[in-house]
Amino acid sequence: MSASTIDTTTYDRLYIGGDWVAPAGRGSITPINASTEEPLPAVPEGVEADVDAAVGAARRAFDAPSGWRTWEPARRAEVLERFAAELEARADRMIGLVSAQNGMPVSVAAQLEGSYPATLLRYYAGLLRAPSAPDLRDGLFGGVVEVRREPIGIVAAIVPWNFPQTLAMFKIAPALAAGCSIVVKPSPETVLDAFLLAEAADAAGLPAGLLNVVPAGREVGAYLVAHPGVDKVAFTGSTEAGRAIGETCGRLLRPVTLELGGKSAAIVLDDADLDLGAIGEGLFVATLLNNGQTCFLGTRVLAPRSRYQEVVDAFTAFAGSLTVGDAADPATQVGPLATARQRERVEGFIAQGRADGGRITVGGGRPDRDRGWFVQPTVFADVDNEAAISRAEIFGPVLSVIGYDDVDDAVAIANASDYGLGGTVWTSDPDRGAAVARRVRTGTIGVNRYIPDPVAPFGGVKASGLGRELGPEGLAAYTELQTIYR
Ligand code: NAD
Questions:
Q1: How far apart are CA 139 and CA 422, in angstroms?
Q2: Are 99 and 193 in contact (CB under 8 A)?
Q3: Closest to 465 (Cα-Cα) out of 282, 242, 280, 276
Q4: Domain 265-447: which CATH class?
Q5: Which residues line ligand 1 (CB under 6 A)?
Q6: Which residue's CA is the nearest one to ligand 1's atom 32?
Q7: 57-99 pLDDT, tens per residue?
Q8: Could you tell me if 474 and 170 are in contact, meaning their C-beta atoms sit under 8 angstroms apart?
Q9: Ligand 1 atom 28: residue of nearest CA
Q10: Among 11, 49, 53, 334, which one is most buried in terms of CB atoms within 10 A?
């Protein structure tokens, strides 16, 4: 794929209530190509009245007497599978749009944004098709107790720009599978892909009002979160925004799922094979995926002191070997950061790391390119876990290599973080790796590999969030329990 294949379809209407409707406001959002800094087609910016319309349409779809929630699960599954197929038919356009807007290399976007959302829809369709029996329990006081799950209602989904399609589908697929309707508010940085998503849903024949898209900034997002017609909020993004949303939901006693920031540990055990030919791909996904703009990355590399220099050398060679370039070039492994603001933030952390005595072994600056918000993949040695760059979620291609004495020390350092979302253990003994993984206080962790798998819960502890997405647990999060004493 080349930059010239970026979809230039323009949109002047919003997808609300199963229709393309005139926006209530006059504003627009112009996403910028992160590699070239050129403007992409503008889309209408949603305002509060659009949120009202979207929530109203979602409510009507949910309350319809023979609506989606009342359908046989297999019938809902069929529509979800058609939705998956329509997304697959648009995969190339989707990959190009996401990559242009946020700088994700097309090689990465092809695996994630272009195919993971369809996989999720098919996975949840599969759960709907699985046979299920009523949950009837013998009551301790006589009678039978029936436990049922009802769809939770109208879902507000607020999604970030780093994996706009995949993270939206973490919410859309289980919400629809559960019988809910949903209003999605994409991030202003990545809006074009959200229109293509709506197009796919429409082509799949998703009933009107089940999926509504209102692209807007944080104020309209806050309005949606607090909207009286919303029954549940699902958010992915920064811990700061997550706290604000959590406060609102606390006050309203509104169920909320928060998938927030991370600063995970990649623990290299003393028996790890550091042959990059063998582990390079897995290491890339676990530590630098999407130009470092991924919430679960193990950006604190914990190295045994006995092999500290060897680990620094391996990561230096690894980061230095990555091809940095235009996100639209299939050979690119590391593209630009999503926004100028994001690069400023990352460069601020690099300067702070230097000032705190960190030693940069590779990168540290901008590559020789005159356009795009690029930062070279950067490795810091001689930093400890207290350094600012070891504490904060940098959200860029910056790794810190931190030494440890023994496995207890490694686990203690891994756990000495405000966050607890992802992480990895690197070892030639996977059982030993799993034993260490169990001691890390984190929602998810990998042994010699890491990829959020749709079959199992994904989410974090501490400042990384509340609740889980994916797996059957992620479906349950869009239901409310009802007990009937019979
Ligand atoms: P953000 O959290 O501010 O924005 C994410 C989404 O939430 C956007 O759609 C935004 O419009 C919306 N939003 C923000 N505040 C809101 C509020 N109070 N109510 C309702 N909606 C709200 O993230 P950002 O400003 O785009 O990025 C800042 C930092 O956040 C990054 O540098 C990175 O550290 C972190 N981040 C983390 C993730 C993640 O997946 N964990 C994703 C994106 C950004």
A1: 41
A2: no
A3: 242
A4: alpha beta
A5: 158-162, 185, 187, 217-218, 221-222, 225, 236-238, 241, 244-245, 260-261, 295, 342, 345, 393, 395
A6: 395
A7: 999 999 999 999 999 999 999 999 999 999 999 999 999 999 9
A8: yes
A9: 238
A10: 334
Give the N- to C-terminal CA distance of the chain in Å, as an integer.
Answer: 61
DSSP structure class, residue 389: H
Residue from 98, 218, 295 whose mutation best tests the ligand 1 pocket (most atoms within 8 A of CB): 218
- Report which of 190, 197, 194 is spatially closest to residue 161, judged by C-alpha positions: 190
Catalytic residue among 259, 347, 393, 469: 259
Measured distance CA(260)–CA(262) in Å, rounded: 7
Q: How far apart are CA 242 and CA 257, in angstroms?
A: 9
Q: How many residues are present in the chain?
A: 486
- 3-state class of 321 per DSSP? helix
Q: Could you give phi then psi for residue 328, rounded to 5 degrees?
A: -80, -10
User: Is residue 150 annotated as a catalytic residue, yes or no?
Assistant: no
Q: Map out the domains of the chain as residue ranges.
A: 14-260+464-485, 265-447
pLDDT digits (tens, 9 = 90+) for 169-208: 999 999 999 999 999 999 999 999 999 999 999 999 999 9
14-260+464-485 and 265-447 have identical folds: no
Specify the DSSP element, H or E, that contains 128: helix 116-129
- pTM tops 0.90, yes or no: yes
CATH code given to domain 14-260+464-485: 3.40.605.10
